[in-house]
């Protein structure tokens, strides 16, 4: 039997519409896209693996490692398809997840409806016992009451349990003891907040442990099923998952903490873009990932994506911040909107074209797929505008029905607005592109950046179709469409380090700072983070230490990076100086002149990652040799507002330095790059396409 080899790696990304597979065989990439199978998601992975190993001429047994990311946890939360879950919490705190923070995310809406909590009130159980903010026990845990609660949960047919006690981040003893008592009578998974999210702020922490428990049975079952079927196929290699923070963790860890997988697919895309930025030496990059269901925008500085400790899932009100489900875990920071190839187009009560957030997905899919979908999607609009070749979509695997797209667009949108099919399709795409441009501007402004200062990296099956137009709207002069852009997130999985971030909240004022106590805490976090990394890495591990600090009385903290070394007697002065330096970088100046204004540390973070090999560096080339398209196609031109003859050229026929003058469409198996009239395209020495605005200084 052929043995597996570590230089053959496979990435698998399950999206809302397509499942992407990328196979790296000793530096040669093989990839494919297959429609996601909702009833058995692992089947799409197996089907995709069969295609790429056939193309590569290898057997499943030769695959050395499989790295997987999925939207299943996200979809389960959004669609409320998780387990029947019970919450056990401290007496008096039953309604924390329903009261939220009491902030109004839409101040002037008199009929504002808060999102429903993940666990209804009748499924929340309270118990006496109290831990103080300093971690001291104020009231013993009522163990007899927990025995009764266990009986009620057993009789209630619950599939999972979440435990969230007040101040458990400071002392987890009560949560751990409660789990022991419940586990004696229950054979279902039990999640405790001190392990899932050991951070301050009870609403966020309780909601996170509830979300973890809610999706845990489903994800554990799926991951076990996937491993079994991979072994049956002959692939007996280890399987690792990419988590929301961009690192790799074992399947066992993912099964226990599935909430860490909520943004795993988009995280792979950000890593892919960061790798491209590093290879070309680009310090200011905005990544643009548009797939079948959503579009994601992420800022990348100094070759690394921006990160955060919290994010929201399933925003219910015009994507307003605060209207979703907060998840308190390390995550790559990005803005995500419901604008993918499968997003549905519709007309609102004011007669305006709208798109998303509802998506046709893969079942039934856009109208042009011929799989039962009747409503118009963005892919239908792209097809009517001529951006897509109906006979060469997904390498010819899916034949697109242009007539069905036109009928759907006219029936649901065009006839209501007295527009023909072409004008309606253009309106749909303009709305989508403008929504994405606005999202990118907002994300940049919220981070104190000017979006036009960045180079764009576009990937995902739909992004190259819209990237040039988006650059026109944002004033961006250059955009890279990497090789393998259509399966960018799956390729990003192969670039991800083994990594894990351990956090602990411990409110400490600098006036009462004890270096020895903090060093012990950091050593525990370091051991925990490195332990997770060691499950998949044997090489050198580096740790990043971060203190999240604020002025006393402020409502939020800023990250302050620290050296990976023990804190000594001069720690207070050093921490104060570093905080003020970072505060000035964030807000323009530190606060001065207020006597007695305290500085405090809220949370400590240790992020451990294995060291990745250095990447080969490339210089961007503007190209000299003009390449002439061999065929043409009528494509709607947004500048002239009418169809225009675009050159059509196969990407594989282009060589390094070849320059294609817009307007043109560069086609490949997983996607197509639309080069608008304003841009030219130049092939780089790694095969990437560089879009350069005509007349710019590039």
UniProtKB/TrEMBL annotation:
The Hydantoinase/oxoprolinase N-terminal domain, residue ranges:
9-184
Sorted alphabetically, which InterPro entries does this protein's record hold?
Answer: ACX-like_C (IPR049517), Hydant_A_N (IPR008040), Hydantoinase_A (IPR002821), Oxoprolinase-like (IPR045079)
| GO BP field | glutathione metabolic process
Q: Which residues form the Acetophenone carboxylase-like C-terminal domain?
A: 530-684
Give the coiled coil ranges. none
**A Gene Ontology cellular-component term:** cytosol
Q: Which GO terms describe its molecular function?
A: 5-oxoprolinase (ATP-hydrolyzing) activity
Q: Which residues form the Hydantoinase A/oxoprolinase domain?
A: 205-497
Provide the protein name: Methylhydantoinase
Q: What species was this sequence derived from?
A: Rhizobium loti (Mesorhizobium loti)
């Amino acid at each position: 039997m052929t043995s597996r080899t570590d230089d053959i790696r496979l990435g698998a990304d399950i999206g809302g519409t397509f499942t992407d597979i990328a196979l790296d065989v000793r530096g040669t990439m093989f990839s494919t896209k297959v429609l996601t199978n909702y009833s058995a998601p692992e089947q799409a992975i197996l089907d995709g693996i069969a295609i790429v190993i056939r193309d590569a001429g290898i057997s499943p047994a030769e695959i050395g490692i499989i790295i997987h990311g999925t939207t299943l946890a996200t979809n389960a939360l959004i669609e409320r398809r998780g387990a029947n879950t019970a919450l056990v919490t401290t007496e008096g705190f039953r309604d924390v997840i329903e009261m939220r923070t009491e902030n109004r995310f839409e101040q002037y809406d008199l009929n504002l409806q808060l999102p429903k909590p993940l666990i209804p009130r009748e499924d929340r159980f309270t118990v006496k016992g109290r831990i103080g903010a300093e971690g001291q026990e104020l009231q013993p845990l009522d163990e007899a009451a927990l025995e009764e609660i266990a009986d009620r949960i057993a009789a209630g047919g619950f599939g999972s349990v979440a435990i969230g006690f007040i101040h458990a981040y400071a002392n987890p003893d009560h949560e751990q003891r409660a789990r022991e008592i419940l586990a004696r009578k229950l054979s279902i998974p039990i999640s405790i907040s001190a392990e899932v999210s050991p951070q301050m702020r009870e609403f966020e922490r309780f909601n996170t442990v509830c979300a973890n428990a809610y999706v845990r049975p489903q994800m554990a079952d799926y991951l076990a099923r996937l491993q079994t079927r991979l072994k049956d196929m002959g692939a007996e290699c280890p399987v690792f998952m990419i988590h929301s923070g961009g690192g790799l963790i074992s399947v066992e860890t993912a099964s226990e903490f599935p909430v860490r997988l909520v943004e795993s697919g988009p995280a792979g895309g950000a890593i892919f873009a960061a790798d491209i930025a590093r290879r070309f030496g680009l310090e200011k990059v905005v990544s643009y990932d548009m797939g079948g269901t959503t579009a994601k925008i992420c800022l990348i500085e100094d070759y690394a994506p921006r990160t955060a400790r919290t994010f929201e899932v399933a925003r219910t009100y015009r994507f307003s911040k605060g209207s979703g489900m907060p998840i308190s875990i390390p995550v790559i920071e990005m803005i995500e909107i419901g604008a993918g190839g499968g997003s549905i187009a519709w007309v609102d009560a004011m007669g305006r074209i709208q798109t998303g957030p509802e998506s046709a997905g893969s079942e039934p899919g856009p109208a042009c797929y011929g799989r039962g979908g009747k409503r118009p999607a963005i892919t239908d609009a792209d097809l009517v505008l001529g951006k897509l070749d109906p006979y060469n979509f997904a390498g010819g695997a899916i034949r697109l029905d242009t007539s069905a797209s036109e009928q759907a667009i006219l029936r649901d949108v065009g006839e209501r607005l007295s527009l023909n099919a072409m004008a309606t399709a253009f309106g749909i795409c303009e709305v989508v592109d403008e929504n994405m441009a606005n999202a990118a501007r907002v994300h940049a402004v919220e981070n104190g950046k000017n979006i036009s200062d960045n180079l764009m990296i576009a990937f995902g099956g739909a992004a190259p179709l819209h990237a040039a137009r988006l650059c026109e709207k944002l004033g961006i002069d250059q955009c890279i469409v990497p090789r393998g852009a259509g399966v960018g997130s799956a390729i990003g999985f192969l670039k991800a380090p083994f990594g894990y971030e351990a956090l602990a909240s411990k409110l400490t004022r600098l006036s009462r700072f004890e270096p020895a106590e903090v060093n012990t805490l950091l050593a525990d976090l370091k051991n925990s983070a490195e332990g997770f990394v060691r499950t998949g890495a044997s090489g050198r591990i580096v740790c990043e230490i971060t203190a999240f600090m604020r002025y006393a009385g402020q409502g939020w903290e800023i990250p302050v990076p620290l050296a990976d070394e023990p804190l000594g007697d001069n720690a207070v002065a050093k921490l104060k100086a570093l905080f003020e330096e970072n505060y000035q970088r964030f807000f323009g100046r530190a606060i001065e002149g207020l006597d007695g204004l305290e500085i405090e540390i809220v949370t400590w973070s240790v992020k451990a990652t294995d060291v990745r090999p250095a990447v080969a560096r490339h210089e961007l080339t503007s190209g000299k040799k003009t390449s002439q398209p061999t065929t043409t196609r009528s494509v709607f031109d947004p500048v002239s507002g009418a169809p225009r003859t675009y050159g059509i050229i196969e990407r594989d026929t282009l060589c390094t330095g070849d320059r294609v003058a817009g307007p043109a469409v560069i086609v490949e198996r997983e996607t197509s790059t639309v080069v608008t009239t304003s841009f030219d395209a130049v092939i780089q020495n790694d095969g990437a396409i560089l879009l350069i605005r005509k007349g710019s200084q590039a």
